[in-house]
Amino acid sequence: MLEEIVIVNAARTAMGRFQGQLSSLTAAKLGLAVCKSVTHAESLSRIVDHVVLGQGLQAGHGQNPARQIAMQAGIDSSAVAYSLNQVCSSGLLAVIQASQCIALRDSEVAIAGGTESMSNAPFLLNRSTIQPEALGELRLMDSLMQDGLTCAINGEKMGMTAERIAKAYQISRGEQDAYALLSSQRLKASALAGQSAQEIVPVHYLANGKVQIADKDQLIDSNVDEQSLSALLPAFTAHGTVTAGNSSGINDGAAAVLLMSAKRAAQEGIEPMARVLAWSSVGYLPEMMGMSPVPAISQLLQRARMTIQDIDQFEINEAFAVQVLAIMRDLGLDPDKVNPHGGALAMGHPIGASGARILVTLLHSMKMKDESLGIAAVCAGGGQSTAILVERLS
């Protein structure tokens, strides 16, 4: 019989603008902040036996960032720590893998999540192409584009997959812009209601030689309205409908949860936030990667023997407005139940962290709204998706 899995804490950093307030911090530093937060610094770090963290852009960050973070967080050296990469699904896949470890009794207490500093993605030079005796220029590779924003299967920019969805589902530019505006409005309303503050762990950073605190999403102050969105040019094709305004941004941030076996949580006298009921991970067409949450959510519900109507809230990562609109159409979702606090269109999409970020938002939202069941799902470049079903306990 599998061990029951519970989530006892969940936190995220504020989402920073590209080359913005968090750009002086490495992905490891961002990940360290949330890992310390979910373990309440030293009080629970002593019992952590697994650390699983996603990161999409690992080049130049040193060996195994998860291990770096574990050691800096005061976790015992006997704990297992590893980093994984499934692009945008990385953070949620980390939670699933940690859940599997607990279910199979390979772990009792695990930190899982994701971290990303897209601002610090390096430029690369292929060593095998260097000819010291040759004259001329050397061409650098942008790891942000190469490893983060371009499909390695077909060479397309991620935005082209969104354009394909817009055409297939006949979703207009106006509909996409309207959803992007709604996401922004929801995020601002959520911040005013105190939802965002429940999720965010403040992070210290240096600016102009002074220590500052990042405790709110940096893009929340952006002046997003119907006019500013409609003025933007298509970003990927001359006559396209996908723009910078109805696409997620390039950002920095981290998110994590602390998982335990229900038995261990009881032994520690901890009241869990939620129970992990089921998960799914699927492959899909690379050229339609944004639609991959449809089979992931369908498989998840089938495994849990539930229906769409049983679920109180869905957090679906907003890689592009068009993809969320098409997913809602395919699954017959109530728009009011999907991303009610805004999403990546409004706050940003640090790719390795976003899967964990949507789960953190979901958990705190369910508590605030007194809801029982929620699903978090995220698409990933190359045609992948992960999804998880949680039940609120407290």
From TrEMBL:
InterPro entries named among the record's database cross-references: Thiolase, Thiolase-like, Thiolase_acyl_enz_int_AS, Thiolase_C, Thiolase_CS, Thiolase_N
Q: Which PROSITE patterns match?
A: THIOLASE_1 (PS00098), THIOLASE_2 (PS00737)
Q: Which GO terms describe its molecular function?
A: acetyl-CoA C-acyltransferase activity
All copies of domain Thiolase C-terminal, residue ranges: 271-392
Active site at 88 (acyl-thioester intermediate), 349 (proton acceptor), 379 (proton acceptor)
Q: What stretches pass through the bilayer?
A: none
What SUPFAM superfamilies is this protein classified in? Thiolase-like
Instruction: Please give the superkingdom of this protein's source.
Output: Bacteria
Domain Thiolase N-terminal residue range list: 5-262
Gene3D superfamilies in alphabetical order: 3.40.47.10
**UniProt signal peptide:** none
What does the UniProt keyword field contain?
Acyltransferase, Transferase
Keyword Zinc part of the UniProt annotation: no
Q: Which Pfam families match?
A: Thiolase_C, Thiolase_N
Similarity annotation:
Belongs to the thiolase-like superfamily. Thiolase family.
Q: What is this protein called?
A: Thiolase family protein
Species name = Photobacterium chitinilyticum
